[in-house]
Amino acid sequence: xxxxxxxxxxxxxxxxxxxxxxxxxxxxxxxxxxxxxxxxxxxxxxxxxxxxxxxxxxxxxxxxxxxxxxxxxxxxxxxxxxxxxxxxxxxxxxxxxxxxxxxxxxxxxxxxxxxxxxxxxxxxxxxxxxxxxxxxxxxxxxxxxxxxxxxxxxxxxxxxxxxxxxxxxxxxxxxxxxxxxxxxxxxxxxxxxxxxxxxxxxxxxxxxxxxxxxxxxxxxxxxxxxxxxxxxxxxxxxxxxxxxxxxxxxxxxxxxxxxxxxxxxxxxxxxxxxxxxxxxxxxxxxxxxxxxxxxxxxxxx
Length: 301
Fold this sequence. Notes:
- This protein is an alpha+beta fold.
- It has nine helices and seven strands.
């Protein structure tokens, strides 16, 4: 029986030259594909920013024009014969527009910070009860303008957590402001700071808006991660508010939960570590999502 012999390509043979040529072609083709992919990504990024800036042109100019217009009329109050009630009304319009403009600017700065990777955290003991009250107070002008009532449950007891005060405050603001945008005139928002059944501090907000489908929830939470799809939608629907809040909370060892149903509104819950939190001993199982609780009933410890 003839023994098998290994086949070797001798240097300088036609087969060796052909193999080398094919390898070079494959490498060039792969390099060409990588260049095309990079070019497509860059074009998508440029397109996204162009759309974002075009959208911002409207979103920023609208409240700014209102501020300038009503401020001008107030300055000419005597010439226009404006009475006391009318001047108060115009001043209210200016405050509402300024609040809206500030919200847009804050969102732009937060998105820019994420994109640049310039997000630093400092940790301290926080009182979520106080922080929720402050967020509701900041949202009062916009809530009054939209005809939406924010109902606060279980106020007064300290709900102590561990985290970055600035980022947690921004997360709460995004949750409350997004709930406001979801509600129609005459709608309600229920909000509460409490300890959950496992003793973890949490804030829960539920709106009576139209609600979101599973796909819409998925899009809302990925709007920030998928920049080329999200930035141009930043001020339509839930925008990037949920995505930013989720990112901020999870960066601090917390958990962000959202459950929504069409026609039933949206429930959002954020849970943070306790003040005694130790990153090495942190057990993520303690923050497993639970079913939305009834905000009419307090679970505060």
